[in-house]
Amino acid sequence: MSQRLVAAIDQGTTSTRCMVFDAAGTVLGSHQREHRQLLPRPGWVEHDAVEIWARVQEVVAGGLRNAGVDAADLAAVGIANQRETTVVWDPATGRPVHNALVWQDTRTEPLCAELAAGPGRDRFARDTGLPLASYFSGPKIRWLLDHVPGARERAERGELLFGTLDTWIIWNLTGGAVHVTDVTNASRTLLMNLRTLDWDEGALSAMGVPRAMLPEIRSSAEVYGRACGVLEGVPITAALGDQQAALFGQACFSAGEAKSTYGTGAFLMLNTGREPVPSAHGLLTTVGFRLGGEPAVYALEGSIANTGSLTRWLRDGLGVIGGAAEIETLARSVPDNGGLYLVPAFSGLFAPHWSPDARGILAGLTGFARHGHLARAVLEATAYQTREVMDAMALDSGLRLESLRVDGGMTANDLLMQMLADVLGVRIARPEMTETTCLGAAYAAGLAAGVWPDLDALRAGRRHGAAWTPEPGTGLGARQYRKYRKAVELAKGWLDEDDVIEGI
Ligand SMILES: Nc1ncnc2c1ncn2[C@@H]1O[C@H](COP(=O)(O)OP(=O)(O)O)[C@@H](O)[C@H]1O
Ligand SMILES: O=P(O)(O)OC[C@H](O)CO
């Protein structure tokens, strides 16, 4: 076997997968494993980083086995990862000092509110492109330093390291030799300056995070080091936050190209080119990718916290469905939502509202409501939330999208695809290969390793799958969107101050 194969590891919120690609972008083999969601209190979400590292090794071994190849056949490996989720560990033992705090975790809301009331409040939006919200890594690091005994002193002495999942995986893959992050992951910490692409001293001191524990920020596609163990000798040549990896995998290389990924949450991202575009309408300014020494490419993002997680909630929380695919059958068992509107503010509302004090609401309940209506309300909530961020994007960028490229686990749902077309009023395009997160990590890794010569070669390899266009008269029009927006207003401000302190 020639060394033209590339492996990608996608470490997501609910599962980790590995895929092996050939130079035509065809998947030769893959493997996937879920990990535990630890929910110690309402609003708190944790992962065991040691368990995740074990899953990474298992899926890599399984992916290679299913592809019928060895590590020696790989030209490179690339990593895509759930962003913001925060690990702090002791490099002497390789053990985390606490479970990882997951991006959905809301425990740092009081801290964010305190910082937002302080003198440095505007610096974060101006310098990092992000609102002060519990979503991002900075407040999570601060929480760990404040709550794990002795952690702050040890971090200041450089005896503890911080990383998002890219950093944790690269550190482990290299046997503890390499402590780096990529610029897309660093852009989600509230600690990186968007223009210098380095840690921002002002943000660090306002957040109370010592620089000694932070990884070096590198580009998204370059050689970080060589792996040992399960990927013995393979160069690690890409790391991207999973949403940026999907942007790359959808070949949104030029300004004006956009994608929306539907997994646990949904993330609409628009490539805005070589200048960061500040948002006045509740979006994030973030780094899309940076290839080696080339200038960074920026993006505007609308992050939605809960979409696919609602399907999971119907399955695991309520027992309404037995498997994710059943939500479509259940939703199709009724002609419409029966007047039900679900605002899934399980972690407050992210873009474009950034309302930490909102909580979920099921509005319009009558005795007529059945499980089928709930299934529809869940799917429609994904479409309405996308509409909110798409409208904000048009205001911020002056650009009206005519077509949206979609991907992620939830796009297997054809009914949802039609709902998106109807609610957004645009063409929805699903590629043949919907695992674009893995594909993007593989593209970036393969570019750095010379498997593909340039972006044009990647663009030419894109394979179209299916498309949906708006169908008038489906009952998903202006009136339904207005009702959803009305329900959003009811969900806001639900938490009282003492609830926030209790972390509910
Ligand atoms: N047919 C479906 N309809 C609706 N939701 C689905 C469907 N299939 C999977 N999902 C949801 O999509 C998510 C899985 O997508 P994935 O892209 O693997 O997510 P992540 O990367 O966030 O772990 C799960 O939350 C699951 O509940
Ligand atoms: O792992 P996913 O696909 O749920 O994506 C999570 C995002 O990166 C959070 O910002």
UniProtKB/TrEMBL annotation:
Residues 259-449 form the Carbohydrate kinase FGGY C-terminal domain. One of its GO terms (cellular component) is cytosol. Its EC number is 2.7.1.30. Glycerol binds at residues 83-84, 135, 242-243. Keywords: ATP-binding, Glycerol metabolism, Kinase, Nucleotide-binding, Transferase. Residues 6-249 form the Carbohydrate kinase FGGY N-terminal domain. It is an enzyme of class 2 (transferase). One of its GO terms (biological process) is glycerol-3-phosphate metabolic process. It catalyses: glycerol + ATP = sn-glycerol 3-phosphate + ADP + H(+). It comes from the Bacteria. InterPro entries: ATPase_NBD, Carb_kinase_FGGY, Carb_kinase_FGGY_CS, FGGY_C, FGGY_N, Glycerol_kin. ATP binds at residues 13-15, 264, 308, 409. ADP binds at residues 13, 17, 264, 308, 409, 413. GO terms for molecular function: ATP binding; glycerol kinase activity. Sn-glycerol 3-phosphate binds at residues 13, 83-84, 135, 242. Inhibited by fructose 1,6-bisphosphate (FBP). Belongs to the FGGY kinase family. NCBIfam families: glycerol_kin (TIGR01311), PRK00047.1 (NF000756). Key enzyme in the regulation of glycerol uptake and metabolism. Catalyzes the phosphorylation of glycerol to yield sn-glycerol 3-phosphate. This is Glycerol kinase. The lineage of its organism: Bacteria, Bacillati, Actinomycetota, Actinomycetes, Streptosporangiales. The gene is glpK_2.
